[in-house]
Amino acid sequence: MNPLSNLFGKSPFVPLQEHMEVVQDCASHLVPFFDAVLEGNWEKAKQEQAEIVALENKADDIKKKLRLHLPKNLFMPVPRNDVLELLRSQDQIANLSRDIVGIMVGREMAIPEPLEEMMRTSVALAVAATLQALKGIEELDELLESGFRGPEVDFVERLIEQLDTLEHDTDDHKIKVRTTLFKIEKDYNPVDVMFLYQIIDWVSDIADKAQRVGSRLQILIAR
C-alpha cells in the first residue's frame, strides 16, 4: 500500500478525524488535572501534565504527516487550504492545553477557595466544547457521502449551533470568574493573581478554539 493510502485510508478526512480525537483526548485531561490541583496533589497533577504533553506530541506527529502528504495536485473533495486551516484550528486546542498545565505545574499555582468550583465549571464547559467540535468532525465522512447537501448538513449545522452556545456560556462564565477574582485579588500575591487571570482566559480560549473548528467546518459546508 502506498503512503497516501496508508495515511488516508478510504477517506481523505481520516487523519483529520484522528487528529481531532487526539486533541479532544488531550483537552479532556484538563478535568483530572484541575481536580488534582484543587486537591493540592501535585504528583497526580504532574502525571496528568505528562499525559497532556504526550497527546499534544501525538497530535503534532499526525499534523506533520497530514501536511506532508496532503495531495496538492490530485482531486480533493474540498479545498486543500480549508483542510489545513481546520487542522490548524484543531491543533491550537492541544497547544493551549499543554501551555495551561505547563504554567500551573511550573508555578505550582493554587486556586483560591472562592474560585475552586467556578474553575471546575470553566474547565468542564471548555472540554464540553471540544467534545462538541469532535462530534462535528466525526460527521465529515457522512458529509462527503451526502455531497455536502441534505439532512446531514442540517444535522451538522445543529451541532455547530450547540457548539456556539457552549462557547458563549464559557465566555459568560469567564466574566463571572474574573469578577470574583477581582473582588479578592488584594488578598493574594499580585504575581500569582496575574498568572491566574491568564489561566482563566486560556481555559475560556479552549472553547473559543473549539468554536473556530466549528466555524471552519461551516465554511467547508458552505462551499
TrEMBL record:
<dbReference type="InterPro" id="IPR002727">
    <property type="entry name" value="DUF47"/>
</dbReference>
<protein>
    <submittedName>
        <fullName>TIGR00153 family protein</fullName>
    </submittedName>
</protein>
<comment type="similarity">
    <text>Belongs to the UPF0111 family.</text>
</comment>
<dbReference type="InterPro" id="IPR018445">
    <property type="entry name" value="Put_Phosphate_transp_reg"/>
</dbReference>
<dbReference type="Pfam" id="PF01865">
    <property type="entry name" value="PhoU_div"/>
</dbReference>
<dbReference type="InterPro" id="IPR038078">
    <property type="entry name" value="PhoU-like_sf"/>
</dbReference>
